[in-house]
Write a structure and sequence with these properties.
heterodimer, A: alpha+beta, 8 strands, globular, B: mainly alpha, 0% strand
Chain lengths: 196, 185
């Protein structure tokens, strides 16, 4: 992908090979250009998952600097996980989280590489899992952010490869500092398989 | 939720009219459609995520309170929502101006106010339109456009055949085109 985004002809095909009417082909290309121009939408943090009340009044304006917030998030990663890669927000890789398998998935391990926040304030991540085979149910696994053991925000889901090794990109809202742990479960299950 | 399926079928303008008479369910549907767009607009305007989240909440309170002034004869819902949200965000900026240090991504090549306005409106429309995508189509768009994955990499990441990725991509683009043309023009 170039800095301008993916190649439209690779996505849809040239007009004479796509099987599309030229007008429809142009219509899709226009959307393609708009997607690139718009950039990624921000993910919603827990605080924004529900709409405000009509009579909501914010009495104490929060005046936080971005660097303070980033430092706080960095602190959570350091405190909650105990391992950091890179030296700060100027690095491409912001931090790395390690996860170990529970008794329900003994031998499984995972690392989550957390990259610098994108333009919308989302945190791109990539989880690399080893030793976690696909469940008999065929369902995907889910990665959640937790606080005090409670699952609060889902970062993504993945289908495990048959050899137990999987690498999947994910995303998370900005406020990593609102959480203190990570967990992997099978979809529809509360049994933790990997935890920090 | 009294009648979520009904509200999902309504246009933005119809939802605004219901919000104007105090329909909380309609407001929740509007919020679902526009929360990311409003937050994105605030982020572009303010630069700081924390302040943007505050401003987004303020913007929705303003939408709640102003909905009764919406007149469908004067245009569709999306531009009205954009104007109310933009004004609320700007009002918040006036009340609590911030140091400019955090916004200085670079002194050169900065867009003009007109260019920023056009970009913000484009992003608003696109981010709103993304909400129409079904859950199986949205990931292929996000991974292709904002994570830089090739179609083959997306197939691997999602565990689906390459042909399915291509089909979903084309379908998603068509769905977005429909949404942009019908609802937001």
């Amino acid at each position: 992908m170039s800095e301008r985004g993916p190649d439209f002809d690779e996505l849809v095909g040239p007009v004479d090979e796509s099987g599309l009417d030229p007008v429809e082909h142009d219509r899709l290309r226009n959307v393609h250009e708009l997607l690139i121009a718009a950039g990624p939408p921000p993910e919603l943090s827990v605080q924004l998952e529900a709409p405000p009340r009509r009579d909501a009044v914010r009495t104490r304006p929060r005046r936080r600097l971005r660097l303070v917030a980033i430092a706080a998030s960095f602190g959570v990663l350091a405190f909650g996980v105990g391992y950091l890669a890179g030296g700060g927000p100027d690095y491409e890789t912001f931090g790395q989280v390690t996860m170990t398998g529970t008794t329900a998935a003994a031998g499984a391990r995972a690392t989550i590489d957390v990259f610098d926040a994108d333009a919308a304030g989302n945190w791109p991540m990539e989880i690399t899992v080893t030793g976690l085979n696909p469940p008999p149910s065929g369902k995907p696994y889910e990665v959640w952010l937790t606080r005090d053991g409670a699952r609060l925000a889902q970062c993504g889901s993945f289908l495990a490869d048959p050899d137990g090794t999987t690498r999947v990109p994910m995303n998370a809202p900005f406020k990593l500092r609102d959480y203190d742990g990570w967990i992997v479960v099978e979809e529809g299950s509360d049994v933790p398989l990997l935890t920090t | 939720m009294a009648r979520p399926s009904d509200d999902q079928a309504l246009t933005d303008g119809e939802l605004l009219e219901r919000v104007g008479v105090g329909d909380r369910t309609a407001f929740e549907e509007l919020y679902r459609r526009y929360a990311r767009a409003v937050l994105g607009l605030a982020l572009r305007r303010l630069g700081d995520r924390g302040r943007a989240e505050d401003a987004a909440q303020d913007a929705f309170v303003a939408i709640w309170k102003s909905a009764r002034t919406y007149d469908p004869r004067r245009g569709s819902g999306a531009p009205w929502l954009y104007a109310v949200a933009r004004n609320a965000i700007t009002d918040g900026l006036r009340r609590a101006p911030e140091p400019t240090m955090e916004l200085s991504d670079g002194p050169t090549g900065e867009p003009s106010p007109a260019e920023r306005a056009e970009t913000s409106w484009t992003a608003w429309q696109v981010h709103r339109a993304l909400e129409v995508l079904p859950s199986h189509e949205r990931p292929v768009i996000e991974l292709a456009y904002w994570r830089g994955l090739s179609q083959s990499e997306i197939a691997d990441a999602l565990g689906i055949p390459l042909g399915t990725v291509k089909t979903r991509t084309r379908s998603a683009l068509a769905r977005l085109a429909d949404a942009l043309e019908e609802e937001l023009r």
